[in-house]
Amino acid sequence: MKHDNPDYSKLFKTMPVPRFIVHSQGDDVFVIIEANDLAHKYLNTNGESVNGREINECLDHENAQHFQQSFEVCVSKKIPVTIQTVPGVPGQLRVYGFYIYPVLNEAGEVDFIDVVGQMDVADQSILQRERDDAISLLTSIFDVSEIGIIVTDNDHHIVRVNESFIRTFGWKRDELVNEELTALVTPDERAHVKERYDEYVKNGGHSSGEMKIIRKDGAIANALFTTATMELSQSRRFQITTVMDITLRKQMEQSLRLAKEQADSSNRSKSLFLANMSHELRTPLNAIIGFSEMMIGETFGPLGHDKYKEYLTDVHASAEHLLGIINEVLDMSKIEAGRIELDEENVEIDLLLESVVRMLDSRAFGKNVKLELKCSENMPYMHADPRLLRQILINLIGNAVKFSKSGASVRIDAEAKINGSLVITVSDDGVGIPEDKIEQAMEPFGQVSDRADDAQHQGTGLGLPLAKAMVELHGGKLDIKSVLDEGTDIIISFPPDRIIEKTVS
Q1: Where are the alpha helices (DSSP H) in 59-186?
Q2: Tens of pLDDT along 170-185?
Q3: Is the distance from CB of 247 to CB of 222 less than 8 angstroms?
Q4: pTM for the predicted model, two decimal places
């Protein structure tokens, strides 16, 4: 901006305050286009002109950033801005603040910014406005906070309380102001609160903890507090205490604690029941199975009638079925209680698979289902518990046979992967599992079919969960892929650290 009138130019140049004109070039770029003598001194340019320079080329980073932000507000809001600066900047010119005015063009946009310094220390309007703004801000925070706040003086008396505390605990403001803080806490805590309060006020610092507050209606609220000391003029000390009602949280904690105790008690009762069931049921069942086997084999002579032998066969099968259910329940209980320990050795997977397939072959033959076993060459050893590994395979292959249709096949594929893991897949073309019930099938006692024609397939619902738990005991993983009425693939994979390659002799 040029001043054609020499008198105005001289006036601008010799003004008793720093003044410079800034051009807004867009994109938050502001360039000084003219500065008077005191502005040059303030900007400490060592006699060099500041014309054409940006503000950050003339001041240290902190001051330059302060000006830059003020320019941006001035341009975006199109309003005057007042800033306070630190007196005694590099040019040794004591400037206490600047008035920043926007100069608009015909289109109403800011083209220039007129920056005028404030030299008179007696003019405290800038500082006062900033103090007022800070007080207003803090008052707003105090009033709108959702956390209760109490301000107390050196004698424990409440001098101020916010709306949130009043709303939360039911007291009126007039009932609290000038009352002692200890009157709000339960009698058993008053002496302790007073002692801590005196210590905080004397030594300063801050603390936090829990205390019990008396509500207006007489109820007791559990509260979480944080307190800090604030010192004002004339060594006056106040205590600022934030208070949050945590009664509901404490009640929930108590409920969870009671629920856990009840669950632990139920688990102990279940363990006792299962231990009794193990003795009271398995012992007579073993006797029924043993004696029925002797009678079926006619160890002590003929039964006298073929129908007796038929009935005994049913008795024997039913007893074995019941014993199998009891064993599954007991195994599941032990796994859940973490009482199963692996008795590990190096197992030949291919031989184990062949023995399980032979064991289940008669069951499959009775349903007209064919078992097809396929193992990759040079199957490795696996460091595992052979009893649990056998149980896993019996459960999975037995399930596949049970849910297969007559004339179908059950395929068992075992493969040692390149990454060193071992994967065994059991596939059938049976009834399948609905996608939304696969997760349910993995839960203990989970039944996935409600159809009456599937009643013959229902069991305890422990086969898959047991197999999954036993696989995971070995660090493995069990996955199910199934399509309703088309079949199911169950994939179990064991990690490389359990697989041991066979040495070729």
Answers
A1: 61-77, 125-144, 163-169, 173-176
A2: 888 888 888 888 888 8
A3: yes
A4: 0.44
